[in-house]
């Protein structure tokens, strides 16, 4: 007679394998399905940079969009309806950061909350008397370390349709999610080996300091001054600049451009005029 404990262990192992295999099979099926024609229309309307991408990157982006939408939960806030247009547009913003990188589609991200316009959140600040008080703050987007991104739909669309001004709230917030993959949102995403991390730290520290100086002097710069507030914001802001103003960044900040090119594994100057 077979050992009962052995049979029980075998059953548990089989169940565990099945629990893993079924979602993996479903995901593979989703990714392999044809990209819906109506989704292509949405991309062309709300993410026009898609039309500038080389064919291989277009194919990658469409697969990543399908996976992102399958894996993430979208919730509308303040009356915002969640439609295919909302999902595809936001997914495209997130997934352009993943092209050629062969990484997870934001493994730590589970929920996308979407407001129709800019939203108000309460934030604790220290006033002049040293007291901690709550103060309302208007926001276009937020990225949380507990697997949530919050976005203003109006500003997502505006940022995507004008993909040359260096300002894109969705790219900004998803860059924060990549930053947090290292365990802390501090402007130092997971790079890989120690040598590359050292080079990244040296270049980013130098460029961050230069932006702070430029902001103090009000010098003209291709990088938005908001990046001078802290290293995490610097990484998110230069990511926006890298994707939307690559040629200007390459001309004015070549070392920074090369670090971002190595990290993101694409060169947007090949497809952004």
Automatic annotation (TrEMBL):
One Gene Ontology cellular component annotation held by this UniProt entry: cytosol
CDD domains, A to Z: Peptidase_M90_mtfA
Coiled coil: none
Pfam families given in the database record: Peptidase_M90
Superkingdom of source: Bacteria
UniProt GO MF annotations: aminopeptidase activity; metallopeptidase activity
Name of the protein described by the UniProt record: Zinc-dependent peptidase
